Amino acid sequence: MQIRDARFLTSNTEVAKCPAPTLPEYAFIGRSNVGKSSLINMLTARNGLAKTSSLPGKTQLINHFLINEQWYLVDLPGYGYARVSKESRAKWGKMIRAYLSKRENLSCVFVLIDSRLPPQAVDLEFITMLGEMGVPFVLVFTKTDKQSGGRTEQNVQTFLAKMSETWEELPRYFVTSAVARDGRDEVLGFIEEVNQQ
Ligand code: GDP
Hints:
Layout: E1 6-12, E2 25-30, H1 36-44, E3 62-67, E4 71-75, H2 86-102, E5 106-114, H3 121-133, E6 137-142, H4 149-163, E7 173-175, H5 184-196
Parallel strand pairs: 2-4, 2-5, 5-6, 6-7
Antiparallel strand pairs: 1-3, 3-4
Bound molecules: guanosine-5'-diphosphate (GDP).
Guanosine-5'-diphosphate binds near residues 33, 52, 78 and 143.
């Protein structure tokens, strides 16, 4: 898929205020610092489209972008900040659950996983929540330029093995680097494929 057009639409905390659900929607989420903004900018080939990590404590927003006048890309607030109050964690949970359960045009959630780390409890917990809510998702392993391909493959397999303890079917996954621009065609090709279904 060629990205001919990518523009910011809205930022808000309420699902009711999101753009009308008239187009298929793809949401990106992950732990803070996982490389979400960098990945969104790489995919859309627009530097600065997604702003790099908001600081903990700052308002956490659902950001909508319109791509090629065809689909929405959504930058969701990340999870797993080390120093975040119980209160803002609860607020995040409420907002994300509302978004995931009410957004009828949501085609797929891209869950970003740092390819360098062993399976992280927060990621597995978030994935479990998606499963419980019946939300379709895929995995995106990020920052693969930071290590050898063999190491990435090993970490991916470890993550999938961990998931297979509780999941019967494993999700599709993508291996990406915002720096090396790896995985761009695969992720955009997948979105195109789902859009055509
Ligand atoms: P976010 O908090 O998930 O939006 O993460 P950012 O996109 O702001 O990235 C966090 C940090 O990781 C920044 O310093 C980025 O430059 C760096 N980063 C993100 N993606 C990559 C990548 O693919 N390769 C490398 N080497 N660094 C990356």
